[in-house]
Amino acid sequence: MSDAALPRAATSRAPVGEALAGLMLTLPAGIAYLVLLLLPTLAAVTLAFTDYELGMPALNWIGLDNFREMLSDRGFAIALRNTVIYVGTVTPLSIGLGLGAALLIEAGTRGRAFFRAVFFLPVVSLTVAMAAAWQYLLHPTIGPLNALLRQVGVTDPPFWLSSSDTVLLSLAAIGVWESLGYNMVLFLAGLSAIPRELYAAAEVDGARSAFDRFRLVTWPLLGPTTLFVVTITLIRSVRVFDTVAVLTQGGPNKASEVLLYTMYREGFTYLRLGYSAAITLVFLAIVLALVWLQTKAMDRKIHYG
Amino acid sequence: MTTLRRRTLAGLAAAALAIPRMARAETVEITVHYAQPHIYKDAKEAIAAAFARVEPGIRISWLTSPDYNDGLQLVLRQAAAGTGVDLSFQALNRLRVLTERGLAQDLAPLLAREGDPAALGYTPNILDLGRIGTTQAGLAFSASNSIAYLNGALLDRAGVSRDALPTSWDGVLDIAARLSRLPDAPDPLFFDWAITEWHWSALLLGQGGRWMNPQETRFLLDSPEGNAAMALFERIVRDGRMPNLTSAAAQQAFGAGKLGMRFASTANLRNMIRTTAQNFPLITMPMPVIDPQKGCLPVGGSAGVLMARDAAKREAAWKFLRFATGPEGTALMARNTGYVPVNQIAIDDPQYLGEFYRENPLYLAATRQLPITIEWYAFPGSNGVRISQAIVDNLARIVEGRAPAAQVVQDTQREVTRLLPRAS
């Protein structure tokens, strides 16, 4: 090391040291990301192309066979259809009702904190525990709901969770109840960000009815919030699992079989981890596609401002 | 899924103290796993307490899983990860998978060391429960079969005498009709069918039928017995006015006194006695007989499977398994669950359970049926569990009245045949 080299080294050492420190600081997060997220995902992707079964000593590379099987698998087709129906019911209902509740609370003068808490309660409660309460509420013979229906003269109230006609509907109702409060809180935040003067201005400009003011001011200005709420609700409802696992186990006769439950059952009941991983990939693709579509399609129509 | 690991503080402390210097061989800690703690917990803890008095040097660390499926999953996962449980209590129909995957150790050499098995209470029938082919994959710990739970208060209202309980399905359906004519009528009956095909097979085996031929090459639901069983199930649903409930909902309805008769496993009899004690007098009776000569019932329950690799742990786990399935352990198991004892000494020698059965006659329904129970059948090949599900899915069509019995038999036959390993 020569004396002449020293000053140069000193000047360049600072940025290198800084970069190194930066790297060191991000290292824990980087390692966590790698170990907890990236590696398991890669492992799942790899497994999807094998016939691995839990407990079997060896596995074979079978290429696209798992995906080919999926195309002819009646259970998978039903699960996909049920998931679409579930998402198609829960998303619009929980968004519409969430927005409605937010508007009512925003417009109300008394008990705002109370109603906010009431609607938000389902979000903070544990789904599995709440499922037990729902099982009782919807019990065909001793449940309060059917007792009420009999009181008002319905002679044969539905069997809710055990009939293939109503099971998906019942689960969807629970799903709406679950995400309504969450959406409401997001909308409340969005509403409070709308400047009051805009309403006054709209009224001056001739928007007399409340509906006009909603159409011309509230709805457009809620755009960014709505985009976020739609995306998050879609993803949350595609992920439906706990209520199915606790209440119906996919029955009767696959009437409440949904994507994640099929994945769980293939992997952990039938022990076919390879096939289960393939379903996971399909699920991942659906979620990513949803996010992408939402942002692409709606980004252009949103007013940020 | 959820797995609870519980270690008593005392156990930890004792183990820690034992390590440094004091005779190393004295304390061995073994990990013992079982499923369904809501049914088994009291029994396992009673047995462990009694065992600790005999073998103070063996500590038990418990591992539980909510049901048998999770239980199988847990040991397979642990085996894949290289850590393991030393002894696991698994459903009798899962021994096949564990043996096929080389996880269950053959107990025959260990048993041979102990002398004549029959003298220890392990009669050939009892040993058969845990045998897969030529391997003694496990020792049966508990056995169950289907029984009928009846609501005494409702039977009284319908004018059914306790001395004239039905022994045939015709008799049962007659009572169902009387129950449904009561003012403010309860649901007459519920036949547990939904969780696995196990309970439903009581109807098939009751006709003298079997799921598969002896060579396991052909599914036999389309046999005359299979058709008769499905037709009988259709009759139970239709003429018995069976409500379309989930198993859990039916159990709740029965506990609440809104269901006349419930046909289900004897396993949770003790829980049922506790639930109904306040509400109405509970009656149990054996399953209605279908064919008095050929009829059988499937056995349910669990067996201890030895998995320890380490020699000392293996020895300790074997000692615990022997104790748990011996007369004393079996007696504690029977008292604390609804299961039937599976040790001949505990059954024959009145010092173990004689008094208990005299005072608790509700437990006798299942014990009386023991002679006609046969194995809990597991379907061959890697689609075994999937076949169970295919059968249950099709049964739902009968319960919902969507398809006639003959159609359901045909469809199930086709679906299951497709899932069976191809005959080579």
Automatic annotation (TrEMBL), chain B:
SUPFAM superfamilies the record matches: Periplasmic binding protein-like II (SSF53850)
Organism name: Roseomonas alba
Cellular localisation: Periplasm
Transmembrane segments: none
Primary residence: periplasm
Protein name: Extracellular solute-binding protein
InterPro entries: Bact_solute-bd_prot1, SBP
Cross-referenced PANTHER family: ARABINOSE-BINDING PROTEIN-RELATED, DIACETYLCHITOBIOSE BINDING PROTEIN DASA
Stated family: Belongs to the bacterial solute-binding protein 1 family.
Keywords assigned by UniProt, alphabetized: Signal
Signal sequence, start to end: 1-25
